[in-house]
């Protein structure tokens, strides 16, 4: 068989399929077909000549394929698209349309139709991990849109994986500083009662109704579900911090950060967690390490604060007045 004859045979794909009537795949293999070709031909025969409730559509597809001279490979190409459609009627509609298209248009027409048929996905919160053979992996997380946009903004797009993990897991990374996000609720003591006294590791509060309760009980009544709650007095400053279980080591730091999320020096915006504890009344002058005598300052302002009230004033100093941190200019007195 010459090439010319071969090409002529190719252009009559549906006629070749028709010739499979009454034959099985093993019959075709005995005639010399490969197992794959035999299976494909039997499959196409079932589609174009087998029983179907959509005989009208079958007839239209057959005529169109014959008219356009679709080769066997084109018929297979068409099926690669119709396989992705759900429902027999929709499958037949796409098959008829593709059989009616010229071979070079089939892919474009199919893609457009498949796109139109796609059901809009219902998104919900989820997390997916895919490991890749080169040691990388892809983490896909679906969550609140605003939160996700915030998280996305923290990613350094020059090193997305490294910077993301540095933030997520707090792994040491020279350019990304670890951020700890804690939601803090603040109770103004005066809105609930009066501080009676400190007792061991808690405070006693006389409520507006006259009952004396502990700070823990007050917090429990006011907002037990907040996670971290600190009581700040308008006249005394931070009073106490409550959590479901207490971490004494971070307690003072957390309270101070609640009072001053950034360096307490006027106009400074360095985050508290990158700062240092500063004693308002210096340790050597009898200042205690308790929350009322502490404030968070960045390294720079901790350095320029006039710690010693008796030394010649230079940049002024911070002090607590009526519970609030104020800056006292160098020549205040
Ligand atoms: Zn500062």
Structural descriptors:
three-stranded antiparallel β-sheet; 333 residues; alpha+beta; 40% helix; 4 domains; 14 helices; binds zinc ion
Describe the structure.
With 333 residues, the chain is α+β, with helices and mostly antiparallel strands. It has four domains: 3-117, no CATH class; 126-169, no CATH class; 184-241, no CATH class; 272-328, no CATH class. The chain is built from 14 helices and twelve strands. The chain has helices at 3-10, 13-18, 25-30, 35-49, 55-67, 72-82, 88-99, 106-117, 145-153, 160-169, 189-192, 215-223, 248-259, 299-304; strands spanning 126-131, 137-142, 184-188, 193-199, 202-207, 212-214, 228-233, 237-242, 276-279, 294-297, 317-321, 324-328. It has a three-stranded mixed β-sheet with strand order 3-7-8, with helices on both faces. Helix 6 packs antiparallel against helix 7. 21% of the residues are buried. The structure holds zinc ion.
Strand arrangement within the widest β-sheet reads: 3-7-8
Ligand set: zinc ion
Structural class: alpha+beta
Number of helices: 14
What is shown here, in short?
With 333 residues, the chain is of the alpha+beta class. It has 14 helices and twelve strands.
SSE layout:
Blueprint: H1 3-10, H2 13-18, H3 25-30, H4 35-49, H5 55-67, H6 72-82, H7 88-99, H8 106-117, E1 126-131, E2 137-142, H9 145-153, H10 160-169, E3 184-188, H11 189-192, E4 193-199, E5 202-207, E6 212-214, H12 215-223, E7 228-233, E8 237-242, H13 248-259, E9 276-279, E10 294-297, H14 299-304, E11 317-321, E12 324-328
Parallel strand pairs: 3-7
Antiparallel strand pairs: 1-2, 4-5, 5-6, 7-8, 9-10, 11-12
The structure holds zinc ion (ZN).
Zinc ion (ZN) binds at residues 263, 265, 268, 270, 297-298, 300-301.
């Amino acid at each position: 068989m010459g090439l010319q004859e071969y090409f002529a045979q190719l252009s009559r794909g549906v006629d070749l399929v028709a010739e499979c009537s009454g034959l099985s795949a093993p019959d075709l293999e005995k005639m010399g077909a490969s197992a794959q070709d035999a299976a494909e031909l039997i499959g196409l025969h079932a589609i174009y000549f087998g029983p179907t409730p959509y005989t009208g559509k079958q007839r239209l597809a057959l005529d169109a394929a014959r008219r356009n001279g679709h080769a066997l490979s084109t018929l297979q190409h068409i099926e690669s698209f119709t396989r992705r459609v759900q429902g027999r009627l929709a499958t037949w509609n796409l098959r008829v349309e593709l059989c009616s298209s010229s071979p070079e248009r089939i892919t474009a027409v199919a893609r457009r139709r498949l796109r139109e048929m796609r059901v809009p996905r219902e998104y919900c919160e989820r997390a997916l991990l895919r490991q890749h053979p080169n040691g990388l992996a892809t983490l896909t997380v679906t969550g609140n849109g605003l939160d996700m946009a915030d998280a996305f903004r923290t990613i350094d797009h020059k090193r997305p994986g490294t910077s993301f993990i540095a933030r997520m897991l707090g792994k040491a990374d020279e350019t990304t500083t670890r951020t700890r996000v804690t939601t803090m609720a603040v109770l103004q003591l005066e809105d609930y009662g009066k501080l009676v006294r400190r007792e061991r590791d808690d405070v006693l509060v006389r409520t507006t109704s006259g009952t004396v309760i502990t700070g823990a009980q007050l917090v429990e009544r006011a907002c037990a579900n907040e996670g971290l709650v600190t009581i700040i007095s308008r006249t005394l400053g931070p009073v106490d911090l409550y959590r479901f279980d207490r971490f004494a080591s971070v307690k003072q730091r957390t309270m101070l950060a609640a009072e001053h999320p950034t360096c307490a020096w006027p106009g400074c915006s360095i985050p508290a967690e990158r700062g240092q504890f500063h004693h308002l009344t210096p340790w050597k002058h009898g200042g205690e390490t308790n929350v009322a005598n502490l404030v968070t300052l960045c390294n720079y302002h901790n350095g320029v604060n006039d710690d010693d009230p008796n030394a010649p004033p230079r940049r002024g100093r911070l002090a607590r007045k009526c519970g609030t941190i104020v800056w006292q200019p160098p020549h205040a007195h």
